[in-house]
Each structure stands twice: as C-alpha cells, then as structure tokens.
Design a protein that fits this description.
29% of the residues lie in helices and 16% in strands. The protein is an alpha+beta fold. The strands form four sheets. Strands 1, 2, 3, 4, 5, 12, 13 and 14 form an eight-stranded antiparallel β-sheet that branches. A hairpin with a 4-residue loop joins strand 13 (361-365) and strand 14. The protein starts with a strand and ends in a 13-residue tail after the last helix.
Length: 412
C-alpha cells in the first residue's frame, strides 16, 4: 500500500506491505521518539520488494529540504560489503584464489612480515594492517596509489592470520587493490560495471559530480552527558600511539562526507547510496545468487561467504568480541557489556552483511530469503547498530515469524 505519514519533521512516504506494518511503526517511532532526521529503509523477501520507505529531512536549518525518494547519503562501512562482493565475484569466477598468497597478485605487499598473507586474510580482517604507523599525508586517502604503496610497505601489527582486528579504514585498499590487480579495473569501475549496472543500483564507489546534489550531508553523533565511551573510544582518546588512534585518526585529515571524498573510490567507507540500493545489492545474495536473470555468484560460494571465518573475544582494533565472515559482519551480541549498546548487531543465524558508522546497515539472510537496507543522515552511537536501526531489523524478523533473539541471533 502507498504510504504518506506525518512525522515530527515532515513526512514518511513510500510503500509498505500490510504484513510489515510493525516496520512502518518503528520507522515512524525513530523520527518521533529517537531523533531520526532523514532516513530510508527497504526490505525485499524472495525477490519481491515489500517495504520501501523514506522520510524526514535531507538537510536541516535555513536550507531545510525533505529526504526524497532518490536521496542518497554516505553509508560508511556498508561500503566494505560492496568491496568484498567485487572480490568474491572474481573468486567465484576462478580469477582470484581465496587461499592463495597475496604475493601471486600483489607482489609488493608480500614484504616486511606479510610474505605468507593470503587473500582470505585480507577479507576477514586478520592480515594485520588495520592502520599505518607513520602519519598519512594530508589528502592521502584521495590518492589510491599512495595508500596502496604505504600498506604494501607497512610492517604488520601481528603475524598475518594469527588474530583479527577490524581494518576500519585500510580494507578498501587491501581488498580493493586485489580487485584492481586481477580485473584491470579500478574498484569503483569494477563495482559499477559488474554489480551496480546489472542490478540497477543507485550505489556508488566514486560518485559522478552530476549526482552531488542528491547527497544528504551527515550529522555527526554527539555523546550524551554521562554516556560512558566504549573501550575503543577510550583507547583512541587516551593514547595517540594506540592502534585504535592510528586506525581511526591517522587519516590525512580525510573528511568522508565531502565532495572530494564523494568522487574518490574509498572502498572502506566512502560508498554512497540509500536503503533501497543496499537491499537491492543483497537481494541476489539472499536468493542463491540470482535476481531478475542477473547471476552474481553461485549458491555454493554464497554459503562460503556467510560462514564464520574469524571470531574472537577481543578484536584487536575494536576491543570487543567480534564475528566476521569473508568480508562481512555476522550477528554480534555484546548486549551483556557495559557499552554493548554501541557494539551490537543482531541478525539471523544465516545472515551476513555490514553495518556502517552511525547505524546504517545492509544484509542478506539466506534462510529467510531476506535482503535489508537502512540508511540515515543523523549518526547514532557506535560503529554497529543503534536503537533506530536495530528496531527496524527486529521488527522485520518478527514479521517473518521469528520468535526470539536470545541466542544472540534471531530464530524461529
């Protein structure tokens, strides 16, 4: 049914199947009670889009404008899933070997203790270069060759493959350079030609300047008084030599939400899209690799992608328990921790995807044949989901007949 609902800061518009009324209710509640500014959410089940909603404000203040059907925004680390998907297409086609040494494709990387690094280690955050020790030059993130060369020469923070630590900023070049070397195309070009165009995605790794006017700028998260920071945040605030500081702040003064970044192929966090495009990217992955006669991957390879590749009680970068597949986040239940509201992402047991800083999210669930996408412009706490995004995910699973998330993932 067509939707137009008044909210505190405008309207929610779109389409929502009656079965998913609870999702609409939570989306409304996000605006009226949880400080949402502008956002979009989309749900596809078994290849059919059943929810496609957007609303609120694209920009606040004197130049206030509504979030429209074609509004897009930076989705931060949701981009890593798009980058990983490029690599997986090459792996499934036999052009890139998951367990092969990186040296076969990128000889310069196999140095300074990284000689035994494998492609799988690049994807599962265990390769050991989640940061650069020496300062990144100003504007360095805008220079692909500079960043790739720096990472190739970096000594790992641990022996590759022996532990995992989230490659928060560097993932875009470690995995993206493999895509470039094997395909002969830049990361953004490969993604556009092989994924975005065939699936008709309004998702970009490197946005054309002609599309800049549709971008909603992001409002940064501001901690509330008395809110205790997560251990990751405490480490970067207290020690400029810490891995956490280097991983997050040694970035050459990069501003992800800026025109220079929009046009840059920043594969760790610079992707631009919306809930609809995130859901559409995951739709083939939720349905055996095929959608509308577009075959992205084999079903066997999708099973490999979503399997647990690394799990730890303390991620070397995030300083929290984490679980990853090969380039994708899996359900992470840290609700028992004091800062768990910043460190939790509850999905289905067979779901895999990626959250983005501030709360954006996209994922596929192969059991439910579910593809989900959510984007917003007012960031929330943490780098996983906050109450706004998780409430939408929870409502979707309940609508699909799932009973409880008490095991740390949703089950029927």
């Amino acid at each position: 049914m067509e939707i137009q609902v008044g909210i505190k800061n405008g309207f929610i518009k779109g389409r929502c199947d009656e079965k998913f009324q609870p999702v609409l209710d939570e989306f409304v509640r996000n605006f009226n009670a949880r400080n949402e500014l502008g956002a979009s959410v989309c749900i596809n089940v078994a290849g059919e889009t059943l929810v496609d909603l957007w609303g609120g404000m694209k920009s606040p203040g004197k130049e206030a404008a509504s979030w429209e059907e074609d509004t897009i925004s930076v989705v931060f680390s949701c981009t890593k899933a798009a980058t990983a998907l490029c690599a997986h297409m090459l792996i499934d086609q036999g052009k890139l070997e998951l367990n092969a040494p990186v040296a076969e494709y990128w000889p310069e990387f196999a140095s300074h203790g990284k000689e035994q690094a494998t492609v799988a280690m690049m994807l599962n955050h265990s390769v050991g270069v989640p940061a650069l020790r020496e300062p990144v030059k100003e504007g360095g993130f805008l220079d692909w060759d500079y960043m790739s060369d720096r990472l190739a020469q970096e000594e790992p923070f641990w022996k590759p493959g022996t532990r995992n630590g989230y490659h928060m900023m560097t993932f875009g070049w470690t995995v993206g350079e493999l895509v470039r070397r094997v395909s002969g195309q830049s990361l953004g070009t490969f993604f556009r030609n092989n994924i975005a165009k065939p699936l008709h995605l309004d998702f970009w790794i490197g946005l054309p300047e002609s599309e800049f006017g549709r971008v909603s700028r992001t409002l940064r998260w501001r901690p509330e008084k008395g809110q205790k920071p997560a251990p990751f945040t405490m480490a970067l605030l207290n020690d400029p030599n810490s891995l956490q500081y280097l991983a997050f702040l040694n970035n050459g003064r990069h501003k992800t939400d800026s025109p220079d970044s929009y046009r840059t192929e920043y594969g760790a966090g610079g992707g631009i899209g919306n809930g609809r495009s995130l859901a559409a990217m995951y739709t083939p992955l939720a349905n055996g690799g095929l959608h509308n006669d577009v075959k992205l991957l084999s079903n066997d390879h999708i099973e490999r992608m979503r399997a647990v590749s690394v799990a730890t009680s303390e991620d070397a970068t995030l300083l929290m328990p984490s679980r990853f597949g090969l380039g994708f986040m899996l359900s992470m239940d840290n609700r028992n921790r004091e800062s768990g509201y910043m460190e939790t992402l509850i999905l289905g047991q067979q779901a895999f995807g990626h959250a983005g800083a501030g709360g954006s999210d996209g994922f596929a669930d192969t059991e439910a044949n579910l593809a989900f996408g959510y984007s917003m412009n007012r960031m929330g706490a943490g780098i996983l989901l906050n109450e706004r995004g998780q409430s939408l995910v929870d409502a979707v699973y309940r609508c699909l007949g799932y009973r409880t998330d008490s095991p740390g993932f949703w089950i029927k």
